Amino acid sequence: MERPLTKNIRPGAEPLDLRGYEAAGGYQALRKALLQMTPAEVQEEVKQAGLRGRGGAGFPTGVKWSIVPSGSDAPRPKYFVVNADEMEPGTFKDRLLLEGDPHQLIEGALLGAYAIEADVVYIFLRWEYRRAAKLLERAIAEAYAAGYIGRGVLGTDRRVEMYIHISAGRYICGEETALLNALEGKRATPRAKPPFPQTSGLFGKPTIVNNVETVCNVPHIINNGAAWFKGLSQSEDSGTKIYGVSGKVRRPGAWELPMGITLRELIEEHAGGMRDGVRFRGALPGGASTDFLVEEHLDVKLDYGSVQAAGSRLGTGNVIVLDDGTCPVGMVRNLEHFFAQESCGWCTPCRDGLPWTEKVLAAIEEGRGQSRDLGRLELHTKLLGPGNTFCAFAPGAMEPLQSALKYFRDDFERHIREARCPWR
Amino acid sequence: MAILYIDGQPYEISAGSNILHAVLSHKLDLPYFCWHPALGSVGACRLCAVKQFRDADDTRGRLVMACLTPADNARISINDPDARSFRKSVIEWLMANHPHDCPICDEGGECHLQDMTLMTGHCAREHRFPKRTYRNQYLGPLINHEMNRCIQCYRCVRFYNDYAGGDDLQAFASRDRVYFGRQRDGVLESEFSGNLVEVCPTGVFTDKTLKQHYTRKWDLQTAPSVCVHCSLGCNIIPGERYGQLRRVRNRYNHEVNGYFLCDRGRYGYEFVNSDRRLRSPFLRQDGAELAPVAVDEALQRAGAMLTGSAGVVGIGSPRASLEANFALRVLAGPERFFSGMAPEEDRLVGTALAILQTGPARAPSLADVAQADAVLVLGEDVTNTAPMLALQLRQAVRRQPSQVAYDMGIPEWNDAAVREIVQGQRGPLFIATPAATKLDDVATQTYRAAPDDLARLGFAVAHALDPAAPPVPDLPDELQTLAAQIAGALAGASRPLVVGGVSLGSEAALQAAASVARALCRDDRTAELCLVLPECNSLGAALLGGGDLAAAAETLRSGAADTLVVLENDLFRRADAASVEALLSAAKHVIVIDHLANETSGRADLVLPAATFAEGDGTLVNNEGRAQRFYQVFVPEGAIQESWRWVRDLLRAAGRTAEAPWETQDEIIGALAQAQPELAPIAELAPPADFRVVGAKIPRQQHRYSGRTAMLANITVHEPRPPDDPDSPLAFSMEGLLLQAPPPLITEFWSPGWNSAQAINKFQSEVGGPLHGGALGRRLIEPGRAEAAISATVPPAFEPREGALLAVPLHHIFGSEELSVLTPGIHELAPQPYLALSPADAEGLGVVEGDPLALAPAEDGGSLSPEAGGLVARLLPSLPRGVVGVPAGLPGLAGVRAGGWCRVRRVLEERTP
Fold it and tell me: What topology does CATH give the domain B805-906?
């Protein structure tokens, strides 16, 4: 089984430096693209490969790139931004790539920048990823010195600059337009679309924002071609995926696996199954803002279409497992506490609706629940739906709640009926 | 035109608008918070949700935000149950934390949140958890802060920062703890902070001056009025209760001030309530102190003075109405009627009038200013001399860069998106002033120099635009380059604008501004020329004619006249004390008609108490040449009446009854129109006094006005008959129809369900457009095509002198204007008298910041004021060498002539280390 993204990563070892990365075949894709391919050909290869955004939304990367205005009369400068603000609870796949193989990300970002003819690359990094920041800074300096970044890249007349921006640390900064506002030094609130960042993004100029894992795939697609990339997968969606598992499993962790393995395979084979004494009750397949999957979904393929058909979203592909020794109300309360706290405060339903759900959940968990509370929660899951709020944050926050109300309703009712948490 | 289907009905709408705009323009109710007609859409509050359907067959539809959704050919439902219940939920979320103290809240009755809550029908509280609370801040003497009421609509910061260019009011924190305030307690720095009171949909920001003499909003007696604190003539609605003016609020005028006012205009009203008000006639007998007398006796004595006199000199005023000045001109006769301005100011304002009348450039309205796409400001610190002009120039600099957004298909109303595209880009704005101005942050280039050098830059721009304009000799290369850059920007614009004025006291700078405008107008191109004038009726006074104060003094000295009548004018603010003394001493009798006791009234033999703008009707001509009518708000106590009525009474007392047949406002306006046909349009500013709406007058009091039968019950239990108003179709009463009043007679913007300032939507022909039912104000002056009747002489370059400094006036929004400083809050914000020096000059004089200084005329400087002391040194790095900045209008400095040479010296006393 090929693991292109993690082939250079050795657990516990320092990442490859520039020489090591080059020796492992690194920067060949960049060389190939710059010297043999036009930006449009790079875009086309990625489009053909069927690479979809790994940040959670799954938008086809090549299509996203193709909307950026190109040619000599396109607005300048153009920006390529790597979204490394990995703050989704239970998600740690980007960290693996950032700390494990920084040059891979740099090469991918340079390829993406070339594909849209961007002049500047920003890596927007989560505040807590201090080690990644240090490693990236070193790697970028090496790449500058080697002539991969800067003026006259690889002897061509291309010039590109690359900067790391360390986020002030808010979950909403991972939303691509809030990220752009934060990068501009403004309040990290999302922007209205249209205009989309591809035409009016950072500082009002054409901008692409791609997730770390997405970007890391690009060098391999350019090196090996679209057909190879499709062949990596076990499903309709191409490539490999870095899946992760947390919760009360035997071996929590992250693994690069073919796209489309089942939830059961992931938990039982790779995470070693549930710990002794607890049973699987459900799982959030792709971070905190995805709907629960339960036992009946264990054989669902973890690709974009299959998870959606099962009523959830692949999201980041990093699974949080709920076991029978943990109170589902408490888990959802914890999630809604996170979301209420991370709301940017721009639109009313999110700013004032999420704290309300958190308070209701707290009341239920602490035995102060009232019979009308479930109706209030359900109403919120509908009112905070897509389109009603300014961005996708609050609808995402409602996904675990609405599915918990569906699958674990008895537990909620028991809390209210017994005026206590049965798990305490 | 496009079509919008609302609940199955087709409505014609303006193409390219958003759904909320279209719905409100059709006078349908749809609640909203964060959208503001002048600020555009950002989609934050989510209150304006409607159901949108794909086509006629779509029955499911989806919720969209009306403010962010294009309306053309859309199909929507306002009444859809999902939309209604979502809107109700939005209010419910906001109410989770909003204090339930409406009955005692000072915003109550004028609260947009209250209106929207009722409109959505939310009434039962389900949220059973504690409310969030905040700490409030001290924001200065004009604005009160009560953050617990905040509903986080973001309007305040969008107005304050994005629209008005402030930066000390910000949104802080996040989630449900978002806080709107300053980084720390302190006076809000923006000159437009008062608009927060109306921009805020609830009571977070409220009028502190009103709070200090609070009354319920619906208990205010109101009338349409015009601001008297600068030359722009913004429209206002003053409100009175129990004989006291309580507050001023914006009166929407599409062409002039739109939705906003400056803080001087909003808060400057308290002079009306001042202790210095004159409320009865005062008479000086046998050299004694002035003492109050009855009206009859006062007029009898006045009659004696006038009939026995060799002739009457009348000194009018640029802060008095056309009617008052005209009446005085009748009393004194055109030969002996004087404008009330000092010679320099009289000449400058006269020149400005001539430029506007004969020059090819049109004077723009404030709305036009916002549409300009390249601007040169020559010599005016507009933030301080005409504040609302600065606000409009901040909009003008967005014109050129916004075009990129429009080209991308982003409509103007999509405010956040347009600003993201525009970012920090700004259209051309060049500011040439003696010192730094608050508008510099949006300027393309600034130039700091003495007035003559500013003028030379202007003439150089004119020459670059039109080789026929005189060249500027010996111009340094960098100025040549700057002039070429300015000329290029103006010539390349579709609506170029030149802003000039008289505040520097420099004829050359004024002429230079006119020359640039004239050069832009060659080959039948158009350009606009906005000239800032000193006072609310400067242009009106100039239109009425009459010589300056020196000519008045000469007439008295010549013996041709010996009785002086001074109308609403404190002469000691206009000239140095010695020459005013000389003028007053030359008169045998001095009669002063004014509303405030001042130095001039203190020298009078007879003082007659005049009405302020709030107690009488009148007509003013703003800097654009727009005549506007203000109406009496309330009936004052005592013998106060309009100045023109006093003059009429003087004429009658002098036995000249036939010359003064005027009994009503309409009659004096008729007489004025007949005497001076160019002013005849003022008779058509508003319907005459006998105008009625369905047989009734228009009420000054809302239908909810309380206490009608109780207010005077401590005096009499019989309800008194409301006072008559012979001058207008307005009544001092609750009775009548408010909703059908024509625009000049709208006493209050109110509509059922809309109790806040937002009710304005119901009165506009279209949201943001003119008021429905006719024009407001009339332009009296349109550009001519006469070839330069004005001489344009290029002055030589400014040369600093050894041992003397050139006096250059520096204006202050708070402090420079006579009446507004009587508002305690404004007085508090006014600077202490100072002299500004460039650091180099200060070093030469051995002066450091804060040193006590004295100012005296230089030996060869002509007639200047005697030494003025009590001044402190302020070092102004932007000030050029060789000049001294003299704060205009501050106590003790009235006599310093702009453009005069002065000596500045340090007053010897121990420096505190």
Answer: Barwin-like endoglucanases (2.40.40)
- According to DSSP, the residues that pair with B172 across neighbouring strands are B179
Q: What integer pLDDT is reported at residue B778 of this predicted model?
A: 96
- Reported for B438-444, long-range contacts at CB under 8 A and 24+ positions apart, including other chains, are B438/B191, B438/B381, B438/B383, B438/B384, B438/B390, B439/B165, B439/B377, B439/B382, B439/B383, B439/B390, B439/B393, B439/B394, B441/B165, B442/B165, B442/B393, B442/B394, B442/B397, B444/B489
Q: What CA–CA distance (Å, rounded) separates B632 from B634?
A: 6
The Cβ of residue A321 has, within 10 Å, a number of other Cβ atoms equal to: 24
Beta strands in B771-857 (DSSP E): 778-779, 805-810, 834-837, 852-857
Q: Which residue of A has its CA nearest to B91?
A: A348
Helices within B612-747 (DSSP H only): 643-653, 665-675
For residue B177, give both structure tokens: 């703890």
Q: Hunting for tokens 């990365």 — which residue is that?
A: A21
Low-confidence ranges of chain A (pLDDT < 70): none
Nearest CA among A305, A312, A324, A258 for reference residue A285 = A312
Q: Which of residues 81-120 of B touch A (CB under 8 A)?
A: 86, 89-90, 93-94, 96-97
Looking at residue B863, its pLDDT comes to 46
**CATH domain B2-95 topology:** Ubiquitin-like (UB roll) (3.10.20)
Amino acid B460 reads: A
- Number of neighbours of residue A137 by Cβ within 10 angstroms: 13
Tell me what pLDDT residue B785 has.
66
Query: pTM of the full predicted structure?
Result: 0.96
Give one word for A123, left, alpha or beta, with left for phi > 0 and alpha for psi -120 to 50. Answer: beta
Residues of chain B predicted below pLDDT 50: 861-864
Residue B450: burial class (beta carbons within 10 Å; 0-12, 13-18, 19+): buried
Please write the tens of the pLDDT for every residue from B472-520: 999 999 999 999 999 999 999 999 999 999 999 999 999 999 999 999 9
> Cα distance from B44 to chain A (closest Cα, Å)?
4
Q: B756 and B726 in contact (C-beta within 8 Å)? A: no
What is the C-alpha to C-alpha distance for residues B287 and B96, in angstroms, rounded to an integer?
Answer: 70
Chain A residues in contact with B152 (beta carbon < 8 A): 345, 348, 351
Distance CA B628, CA A327 (A): 72
Give the ipTM: 0.95
Q: Report which of A317, A347, A355 is spatially closest to residue A190, judged by C-alpha positions.
A: A347
In chain A, residues with a C-beta closer than 8 Å to the C-beta of B422 are 204
Q: Please give the Cα distance from A191 to A182 (Å, whole number).
A: 11
Long-range contact pairs involving B9-14 (C-beta distance under 8 Å, separation at least 24): B13/B71, B13/B72, B14/B766
For the domain with range A18-226, which CATH number is right: 3.30.470.10, 3.40.430.10, 3.30.750.24, 3.40.50.11540?
Answer: 3.40.50.11540
What are A32-84's pLDDT values in tens digits?
A: 999 999 999 999 999 999 999 999 889 999 999 999 999 999 999 999 999 99
Residue B157's H or E segment, with its range, is helix B155-157
- Torsional class of B512: left (φ above 0), alpha (ψ -120 to 50), beta (otherwise): alpha
Tell me what pLDDT residue B861 has: 47
Interface of A with B (CB under 8 A): 170, 172, 187, 191-192, 194-195, 199-200, 203-204, 340-349, 351-356, 359, 363, 372, 376, 379, 383, 387-390
Dist CA B534 CA B503 (whole Å): 7
CATH of domain A328-418: 1.20.1440.230
Which of helix, strand or coil describes residue A172? helix
Cβ–Cβ under 8 Å, residues B16 and B72: yes
Q: So what CATH class is B347-357+365-470+478-538?
A: alpha beta
Buried b (16+ CB within 10 A) or exposed e, A207-224: bbbbbbbbbbbbbbbbbb
For residue A340, which residues of chain B lie inside 8 Å, CB to CB?
175-176
